[in-house]
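Translate sequence into structure tokens.
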Amino acid sequence: QSFRGMHLPSTHVHGFLMLRLLAVLRPLRRRSLRFHEENLAIDTWLDALRTLLPTPAAAPLADLPRLLKGYGDTHRRGRASYQRIFDALVAPMLRGQRSNDQAGAAELRAAIDAALADPEGRGLEQRLQAAGITPLPPQAKPIRWMRKPRGAPTS
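Result follows.
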């Protein structure tokens, strides 16, 4: 699902009141599902970092949260890439099924760089496939038909 951004002109009374309403709702954030999911992910990441700290894989693992940013579609894609890297590379390292030496650290760093370079995830899947991990099947995307804006030139 795709959402469009909301633009509030804070210089107008209506926009200012909307921003004040959002500020009043701030204490409810701690009760939201996203807040609890983010805290669980932070705890899991910190435990993994403590476990891998004496190994070379700890440095790229410390950069993994760079994928989690933004809101809406940006956050969803970053979260999916984060979880894919964690499940495919980090979790096997923690279980001892994957190397956490220099080669494992290089694989992890390359996967993070690929995910940051290509938000759609194609580069990440190619990088994981090069590391011997079965890629996920491509996701279908709906076609969205849009009307031409009024006054747009016809071709």
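Note: The helical segments are 13-24, 33-52, 58-63, 72-95, 102-117, 122-130.
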